Amino acid sequence: MNLHPVTMVLIVANILVSLKGFNDKLFFDRYKFGIGAINAGQKDRMFTSGFLHVDISHLFFNMFTLYFFANVCIEWFGPIKFIIIYVISLLAGSLLALFFHKDEPYYSAVGASGAVTGVLYAAILLEPNMRLGIMFIPIPLPAYVLGIGYLLYSIYGMKNRVGNIGHTAHFGGAIGGYITTLIFNPELLVTDTLIVALLAIPIVILFILAKMGKI
Predict the structure, then answer these.
(1) Which of 100, 144, 170, 173 fits a disulfide with 89 by CB distance 3.0 to 4.6 angstroms?
(2) Around Cβ 75, how many Cβ atoms within 10 Å?
(3) Cα–Cα distance measured from residue 71 to residue 38, given in angstroms and rounded to the nearest whole number
């Protein structure tokens, strides 16, 4: 697969910022997502935290996912709109995390997962029938099935605080990618109405649960 220059720039930026963070704790602590610091006025953390990672495996997994799905968005929309999807997804992940954890001053997070999940969800919306394989499932499944399943698992992870994972940022990123893709290609509402509706189900469930105080 050919790597588009804009994808390469994003990957290099993530690598360089993450390596700096691995070797400089003061830098890492200053630019990570932190509720207390954001509420105190350091809003830039909502963006900069998307380029920091906990370790090499965290960085690799996010960049590996970006490598596989960036081209779908670029082929449909071009590099500029792809960057817009990436940035909006990153910020949407941070905004949702801020919304759900606003009363937890010590809550912190890092990673490109929100941005990457937004790109993944955008790619699924654009190419819902592409087949994806995951561990423990021997048969590749349609992308939309895995997309819905992933967000439902994220709701479970948010509700039960499963693992040291920013499930909220993942979910927020997916919402960002979903909405931005529909803004850029509203025809999907007509040509792929069922897929658009199915991919919206986890988003609706999340906000119903939030409204009910269940999450």
Answers:
(1) 173
(2) 13
(3) 33
Sign of CA dihedral 28, 63, 166, 93: positive
Q: How far apart are the first and last CA of the chain?
A: 40
Q: Which helix (H) or strand (E) holds 44?
A: none
> Two tokens at 105?
């001053």
Among 153, 135, 2, smallest CA distance to 72 is for 2
State which amino acid sits at residue 16: L
CB 166 within 8 A of CB 98: no
Residue 112 DSSP code: S
191 Cβ neighbours under 8 A, 6+ residues apart: none
